[in-house]
Fold this sequence. Notes:
Blueprint: E1 8-10, E2 25-28, E3 44-47, E4 56-59, E5 62-66, H1 71-75, H2 87-93, H3 100-105, H4 108-114, H5 120-127, E6 131-135, E7 142-145, H6 146-149, E8 150-152, E9 155-156, E10 163-170, H7 171-174, E11 177-184, E12 191-199, E13 204-211, E14 218-224, H8 228-238, H9 252-270
Parallel strand pairs: 1-3, 2-3
Antiparallel strand pairs: 4-5, 5-10, 6-7, 6-10, 8-9, 11-12, 12-13, 13-14
Amino acid sequence: MNLNTIAEVKRPSSPGEIGPWLPNYAWLAGGTWLFSEPQVATDTLIDLDSLGWTPLAATPDGLEIAATCRVADLHGFKGPAEWKAAPLFRDCIDAFLMSFKIWNAATIGGNIVMSLPAGAMISLTAALEGVCTLWPCDGTPRTVPVVDFVTGNHTNVLRPGELLRSIHLPAAALTKRHAMRQMSLTRLGRSAALIVATVDDDGRDFLLTVTAATPRPVQLRFERTPTATELHLAIDERLPPDGYFEDVHGSAAYKRHITYYLAEQIRAELA
């Protein structure tokens, strides 16, 4: 879609060139949502590609993912052999409902900032204990865990003019064993539930992450792999019947049922 209200596109080479943030500004990364509908309150786009951020940087501490990293780049990434959870990148990306055009243009940061319950990159980065680095227009950068970044359906902790710079996935999470389950009402439909668990090789530090079925990511952590009863009770305690996200892709009751069902499948696989 053409955005006929846009009068200027800024292409800064550094954040300092952006200047004071105005309410008529919008960040432009992949643009797959931005150009999908009219932006009548926006007349200026700030193109983040001009900042030249390295898409992916692997270090002994983990993986740094630039907010401007394309989905296709992450899908093709092969990490060190000891990163046993790296196949989860492809698994979550394959859960996307998108065309090849979106695949090659959409960014990891854009999917997270949209903060939709079925955001597959939210599922991925939350499950791998990702931490967001946020840049304010002025002031000191701050960090927020992905699981706390999203606050509800299409809402997050970003302040006006604040920018998601990157997401860091720690090596400690990348080296864990993992299991994932995803369910949709139709074969190529939006996720009704996407659930991931990670665990150390010795069965300790079991972390279950529930997404898509809930308005925001929900995590349950256990010192060791729980029993079926322990897991069921923990889900009950953390997610009451009204804690699920109801939309055309599944009722709250349906999403609650498949959350129990898929979580137990995952628990049994990792046990």
